[in-house]
Design a protein that fits this description.
alpha+beta; Thiol Ester Dehydrase, Chain A
């Protein structure tokens, strides 16, 4: 990925159900926010996960997560969740993700990295990404 490539951005509003007894976003809910951004990024580049499973017998499964919590989000905050391809291997995608309050590049609440493996949907074994999917995922590198 070139340094100039802009990340995919997905907006998320914080609801009561996202907060803990202290009134801040419960730490695990950031994983949900990041998942939504990854799913919408895939949609935006033309990859529908249901179709991926039906037509190719493939699915993406998170196998590694790294998260650095910087500041808390609170009820009613408008967040911007980013997603940028860091690396692709034959059978996995590693994405850098960030969560900002209000605007990308503003107040950073979380930064992290997620690796998703491409698996055979029946055997749950790693499978290489088909060439057309590889192209779709890596198109932003050019």
């Amino acid at each position: 990925m070139t340094a100039a490539a802009a990340p995919f951005v997905w907006p998320v509003r914080v609801y009561w159900e996202d907060t803990d007894a202290g009134g801040i976003v419960y730490y695990a809910n950031y994983m949900k926010f990041m998942e939504r951004a990854r799913t919408e990024w895939l949609r935006a580049i033309g990859i529908d996960q249901a179709r991926l499973k039906e037509e190719h017998g493939l699915m993406f499964v998170v196998v590694d997560v790294e998260a650095h919590y910087r500041k808390p989000a609170r009820y009613n905050d408008q967040l911007q969740v980013t997603c940028r391809v860091r690396e692709t291997t034959r059978a996995s995608i590693t994405l850098d993700q960030e969560v900002y309050r209000e605007n990308v590049g503003g107040e950073l609440l979380l930064d992290g990295r997620v690796r998703a493996a491409c698996l055979d949907a029946l055997k749950y074994r790693p499978r290489p990404l088909p060439p057309e999917l590889w192209e779709q995922i890596n198109a932003g590198d050019r």
